[in-house]
Every structure is written in C-alpha cells, then in structure tokens.
Amino acid sequence: MTKSNNRQGIICIIFAAFFFALMNLFIREAGDLPTYEKAFFRNVVAVFVSGFTLLAGKKGFKVGKGNLKYLFGRAGFGTVGIFCNFYAIDKLDISDASMLNKLSPFFAMIFSIWVLKEKPKAKEWIIVMVAFIGALFVVKPGFDVTRLPALIGLIGGAAAGLAYTFVRKLGSRGVRSSNIVFFFSCFSVLVTLPMLIAGYKPMDGRQLLMLLLCGVSATGGQYSITMAYQKAPAKEISVFDYTQVVFAAVLGYLFLGQMADRYSYIGYAVIITAAIFKWYEANKTSPEG
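The chain above was modelled as a monomer; its predicted structure follows.
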C-alpha cells in the first residue's frame, strides 16, 4: 500500500463524512415519515446516478468471478445498517443515534481481521479508541443500552462496519466503485419498494425536496466511502470518519441553530489530534510507491 493510496483514501473518507453529515441533516428536515420511505429515497437517486455512470463508461455492470457473495454482503449489511440508523434517529436523541453509527469504523477494523486478514497493531487500536473517546465528548450519550432502539442502533453500526469491510474486499479484487454502488442501491431499493407501495405516506413539496437532497448526499457519500476503502485498509483510514461529527456540528449550527458546548470542543480537539497523529503514522510506516 503506497503513501499516495493512503492519502487518497483519507481524502475520500473525509468527503464521505461530509456527505453523510449532509444526509443526516436532510433526514432530520424531512420530518415524520416512515423509515422505509426515507430509506427508499436515500438510494433511488444513487440507482440513477450509478446506472448513468455505468452506461456512460460503456463498460456495463460486471460482477467478476467469485465476487457476487461479497456484493451481497455489502448490499445486505449496508441495507440493514440504513434501516437501523434511520430507526435510531427516529426513536433516540439525534446525538445518541449518531454515536451508535460512529461505531462503524471501529467495527470495520475488527471485521477486517476476519474478512481481509488485516491485523491492526496495538498503536492503531489505541488511536481509534482515542478518536472514539473524542466522539463521546461531542455527543455525550446518555441512553440506557438495554432499550430496543439503542440496541438496534448498535446493530446498525456493526452492520455498516461489516458492509465497508466487504467494500474493501471488493476493491482488492478489482471491482469498480460504480458497480458496487449500483448493486447496493438497486438491492436497497428493491427491498424497500414493496413497503413503500403498501404503506406510502403522502408528503409535501418541502419533504420531497429534503428526501431528494438526502439521496444526492447519500450518493456522494457512497461513492466516496467506496473509493476510500478501495484505496486503503480500514485500519489506515477509519479514524478519519469521525470528522463527520465536526461537519455535523457546523451544519447543525448553520441550519438548525444548534451551538456546541465546551465538552464538544474538547471532543473536536481530541478527534483532530488523533486524525493528525494517524496521518503521521500512516505516512511514516507506508513505503513510497
């Protein structure tokens, strides 16, 4: 793995964090709509964008020998993660739900041991844990983990982490980002479409706009996160996903009038320090290529 690939992976995952922070803002602004309705619009935009990308590239959709099981792994666990995350956002405080979702990079590094045979060093474990502690300062979770919504949110974080690990596996096998995004998006749309037809809840124009913007942001996030885990191992870049917490705070202040407290600023400092240190370690230990 070269320094160039590591840098590209870090940049991509920071872009993904920004897009997903936007997505959560638009989900919040969409109001009281069913989880499956939000999930459908989150992915239907990505179907058209990724499908157009495949057609424009004239390479078509290609699975490749032995890759179908990994595509289903990415799509299946990714869809579970969406449902769990959206359910948690609807049922818990938004900070609690966000914290549970931010466990996904931690799970990604754990699952990379099994799926990718990558073994993080002790120092890498410590850096991720420091970033996780910083995120705790920011969101200040105060929920009872025995409650069902909290448990579902935790399952969503684990599912998302496993889905990203399969993305990394597919990338190592030469599967292009557009193929992965298209397969995942189609899978999620097909899963949610029957529920949407059976229980569609009418929405006004503003809600529709928010859901479409949610879909656009999610598409940008999907492409960015897919490219990130194709470029570099989870252990090298997962810590940078915590920048979503910072982006969310800025967006919350600008559009929702939310002001961070001193504990949040402590968290930002911890997260950024961990990210800088991880960047330094990745560049120091990775051979130039």
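Residues 3-118+144-233 form one domain.
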